[in-house]
Design a protein that fits this description.
Oligomer: single chain
Distance between the termini: 4 Å
Number of helices: 7
Strand content: 15-25%
Bound molecules: zinc ion
Order of helices and strands: EHEEEHHHHHH
Largest sheet: 4 strands, mixed
Number of strands: 4
Number of domains: 1
């Protein structure tokens, strides 16, 4: 899987639909700029291999919006492995968008709504909300380190994602932990035998 982190810093993503954000990403992406995640070949002459469809569930204008996106897989000519290209708005092996989960967490930490109200608003189960909370807190600590984590409230951290001067680097997290922010551990195991 080739993770590309470039959009959030350029766009005010709150006003753009997840689908148009993804289409913009695909229109601008140059696969040749990215090394092969399997064999590390620099700037391989990627060949388009296949497309597949996947769900991306977004929260836009106060409603849950499901999209069917077409994801492209590219084949590395050096090692023959194929890789999907995913922008940061998509969490690997997770159909809910990155910003969907961030929005749920933000509602949870502002305490303006009850857990039941949040689950109704986003059409998710209580267990899903708590599994995201557990994952969020674990990754926040990994990202910030013990000391900064202790001094940074969850709400401040979440708010920073909406700030145009976004100060946390999703790519840095990915390089550090080797999975994407908010990518679940069970999904990581599934991903491990055949890096997508
Ligand atoms: Zn390769």
């Amino acid at each position: 899987m080739i993770r590309v982190f470039q959009l959030f810093c350029k766009l005010n993503f709150q006003i753009v639909s997840a689908e148009s954000l993804y289409n913009k990403f695909m229109a601008e992406i140059d696969p040749k700029k990215h090394s092969c995640p399997w064999c590390n070949t620099k700037n391989p002459d990627w060949k388009h291999h296949a497309d597949y469809e996947r769900w991306l569930i977004s929260f836009e204008g106060g409603v849950v919006v499901p999209y069917r996106l077409e994801i492209s897989r590219y084949k590395c000519p050096s090692c023959g492995h194929t890789h999907a290209i995913l922008p940061e708005s998509i969490i690997p092996y997770q159909c809910y968008s990155f910003l969907f989960i961030i929005a749920v967490m933000r509602d949870y930490y502002t305490r303006a709504l009850t857990v039941a109200d949040i689950c109704t608003k986003y059409n998710i189960s209580v267990s899903t909300l708590y599994s995201w909370k557990e994952l969020f807190l674990r990754h926040k600590k990994l990202w910030l380190g013990l000391l900064e984590d202790a001094y940074t409230s969850s709400l401040d951290f979440l708010d920073s994602f909406y700030d145009t001067n976004f100060r946390y680097d999703l790519e840095e997290f990915f390089q550090l932990v080797r999975i994407s922010f908010l990518q679940g551990a069970s999904q990581m195991k599934k991903a491990h035998p055949a890096p997508g």
